[in-house]
Amino acid sequence: MNILLLIFSILIYASLGPTNLIYILFSILTTYYGALHLKKKNKKRKLIFRMVIILNIILLVFFKFITYNNFFNLFKANSILVPLGVSYYTFQVLAYFIDVYQGKIKPEKNFFNYLLFVFYIPYLFIGPINRYEDLKKTLFKKRKLTLNNLFNGLLRICFGLFKKYVIASRIALVITSITTANLEGAYVLLATILYSFQLYADFSGGIDIVLGFSSILGITLQENFKQPYLAINMQDFWHRWHISLSTWFRDYVYIPLGGNRVSKIRQKLNIIITFIVSGLWHGINYFFWGLFHGLIVAFEPRKKNARFLRIAFNFLLVSLLWSFFIYPSSFTALKMVLSIFYQFNYGDLAKNILNLGLDLGNIIVLIISLISLIGIDLKYEKIKNWLYNKNNLTKLTYICFIILIILVFGVYGLGFNTSDFIYSKF
After folding, report:
1. Residue 400, C-beta contacts closer than 8 angstroms, at least 6 positions apart
2. Quick one: pLDDT at residue 279?
3. Other CB atoms within 10 Å distance of the CB of residue 306
4. How does the average pLDDT of the chain come out, rounded?
5. How far apart are CA 59 and CA 51, in angstroms?
6. Which residues of the chain fall below pLDDT 50?
7. pTM, to two decimals
8. Do the Cβ atoms of 127 and 224 come closer than 8 Å?
9. What are the phi and psi torsion angles at 222 (to 5°)?
10. Radius of gyration, CA atoms only, the chain
11. Which DSSP symbol is given to 120?
């Protein structure tokens, strides 16, 4: 099965741009053979480690800051093909390589296994960013296809598609109508709040599809979300949102900087630096997004007021910071957020609510869908365990029901494409 899975993954990846293979093979070969040489305790060990890390980071920086962002207009936007999933597979192989260097894991001798570890197509475009030590326990072993795994996986996939096509795609129509018209004030507040749900439904929906497909194959991947909008503060939020990325930055940036083993001032500086690097991982336009998150996590007071108020305040804060994702530049994002506090055009918003991309029927569908999503999130583990323990016929019934909802209420563009997911561009 693994041979077919590897061939399938390589063919799909190559079909999306043959030159993608050049860059991903560079990362694979440098980290694989570099790791094999790290077991030798000699003077070249540190040199090999530094060279492999620097070369892969330079390649990532090149694509993130020069090609993708057209940095200093040195290159035309489409002059160089940005390899798909470069941010995800680079972080994955670097984590493996660093862990080998630190003696946490032994280097993988089987090149076929290492290829599969990097090329496994479901998580290559959107994550989660997997650790070799965790993945080898489930990816390399012999597995059997079972009806139970099939239906559990299909349930997860259907839930992900529901989030994407019923919720995220519907909200996108509203946000597009607000941003294209350059509406300010109350409209910006509505856009940022709705975008929080759009991004969550889009990103977690994509992860649901990845985890569901993997479940069908008997492969267990780590969860990437844990009800993030129920966080009581920003630090708690980052323990729940894009968990694989936040733990990566914790282990390979924050802790090497000194973590919390240093003075209070230095610790806060380490937090800020880590979040700035996280912002730059998304792209140069997200520098201030990372900076503001770092400042908030470093200096936010530990509030003692009611839990609901803490959750509501944190959700509002996170939503306002998503403005850097909505608008094309940091300056525009800051300008639009500031307009919330001096343009009190809420009456105008109420009058024009039906002119923002959705009619009354679609608004009702969206509200019901969001309430359902929030309700499922509140009791996610209980609902998941209850559903997964049902017999396969019952599961099939729920699968058909969700598919029917998606077909009737889904909002579609040109069709399914990995680039349709917001976080695939990072």
Report:
1. none
2. 92
3. 9
4. 89
5. 12
6. 68-79, 414-416
7. 0.92
8. yes
9. -70, 150
10. 22
11. -
